[in-house]
Design a protein that fits this description.
- By secondary structure, the protein is an alpha+beta fold.
- Helix 2 packs across helix 3.
- It is built from three helices and three strands.
């Protein structure tokens, strides 16, 4: 849900960017990167019927990271909390 929000924010501003994440060892390890563009059709699929609660620190960290040269890098909620603590201007 957090990624959907951040991706939506960037695309509604007509901004293109990379999105990357690490693959686990069971998936062959390594990193995957996608070029996200407002001209591409995206679909999001979620399990369950409950809407998760948004973590504002996670959203702020993902959005800030998406504006770096590396682009949006998928990080855990714990990593986002650490990122926000190291960048207090995001609070």
């Amino acid at each position: 849900m957090h990624l959907k929000f951040v991706i939506g924010q960037r695309l509604k501003k007509q901004e293109s960017f990379f999105m990357s994440w690490q693959r686990g060892a069971s998936d062959g390890a390594g990193r995957v990167s996608l070029w996200m563009s407002p001209y591409a059709t995206l679909a999001f699929s979620f399990s369950g019927s409950r809407e998760p609660a948004y973590n504002p620190h996670w959203l702020k960290a993902l959005l800030a990271i998406s504006h770096t040269p590396r682009g949006l890098v998928v990080i855990s909620e714990e990593e986002a909390e650490t990122y926000v603590k190291k960048n207090p201007d995001l609070m």
